[in-house]
Amino acid sequence: MSDLEIKRKLRLTRQEAGEHLIALGTALAGGSTSRLEGEGGSISFTVADEVEWEFELEVDGDERELEIELNWSTATAPPPAPTRTAPTRTAPTKAAPRRAPAKRTPAKRAKAAKSTGRGRRSG
User: What's the predicted TM-score (pTM) here?
Assistant: First the structure.
């Protein structure tokens, strides 16, 4: 059994029905507290940020029925659990492998000695 149920049944023109839907849409889009004005007074209610929307069109012979139903909970949802991510580690950069000093061949040694002026002079 519901804690509260307010039901209104009216016979309206298509234009009036559209205006009621527009008023409901404006009230919903305006914020979490919605207020609807009607012939019998006004109704204020709180709407969650997310709702379930159900649209149903039923055809039975000459009869047509269109239902739009919105459902939501006013219970406060627990905040999402914090997600833990592993700390970002940067991969150690590999230094270029050290190359062993090139062995000098006798020809390279002679060339290096000539360029520094330390080579043997033949006479």
Answer: 0.54
Place of tokens 């009036």: 16
DSSP reduced 3-state for 58? strand
Distances in Å between the Cα of 27 and the Cα atoms of 7, 31, 46, 65, 90 are 18, 7, 10, 24, 52
Q: How far apart are CA 43 and CA 34, in angstroms?
A: 8
Q: Give the Cα separation of 45 and 51 in Å (integer).
A: 14
How many residues would you count in the chain?
123
Q: Round to whole Å and give the CA distance between 17 and 19.
A: 5
DSSP character string of 6-41: --------HHHHHHHHHHHHHHHHT-SEEEEEETTE
- pLDDT per residue over 74-99, tens digit each? 887 555 556 655 555 555 555 555 66
Q: Is the pLDDT of residue 32 over 60?
A: yes
The helix (H) or strand (E) run that includes residue 42 is strand 41-46
